[in-house]
User: Which sequence fits this backbone?
């Protein structure tokens, strides 16, 4: 009985921790650039993304957290982008996205390091505090 209570407590704590995962700009950049890297190198995103986080980040989100973040990013697009469209076509579908300059610059540096085509400028540029893909000034992002 004690083991069941401990198991339930751990499961509940894990759910709480998952719900409060706060994405950094660096983690968002890793996740987005890896989509394009996988398309260019014909790799499976879902089989390789966690290894990418192990190599480049201080923590590793689980696949459901990554999926939720991708859904969040897609919902913030105007018009909304479907996640499978993003995964099939790459970040080019985010061309009109409101992306903070800090993320754009980090994506550019990351893409250079990965040998990917660099997107110099998106069509819309906004200040970091108003960007949909930045932690700066964001109140509502539960992912």
Assistant:
């Amino acid at each position: 009985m004690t083991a069941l209570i401990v198991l339930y407590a751990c499961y509940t704590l894990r759910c709480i921790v998952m719900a409060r995962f706060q994405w950094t700009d660096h983690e968002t950049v890793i996740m987005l650039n890896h989509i394009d890297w996988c398309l260019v190198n014909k790799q499976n995103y879902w089989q390789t993304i966690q290894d990418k986080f192990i190599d480049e980040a201080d923590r590793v989100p689980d696949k459901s957290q990554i999926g939720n973040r991708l859904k969040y990013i897609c919902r913030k697009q105007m018009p909304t982008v479907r996640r499978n469209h993003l995964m099939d076509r790459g970040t080019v579908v985010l061309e009109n996205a409101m992306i903070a300059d800090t993320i754009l610059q980090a994506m550019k540096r990351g893409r250079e390091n990965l040998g990917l085509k660099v997107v110099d400028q998106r069509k819309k540029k906004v200040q970091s505090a108003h960007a949909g893909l930045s932690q700066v000034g964001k109140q509502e992002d539960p992912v």
Residues 6 and 12 are 10 Å apart (CA to CA). Residues 2-19 form the longest helix (18 residues). The chain has six helices and two strands.
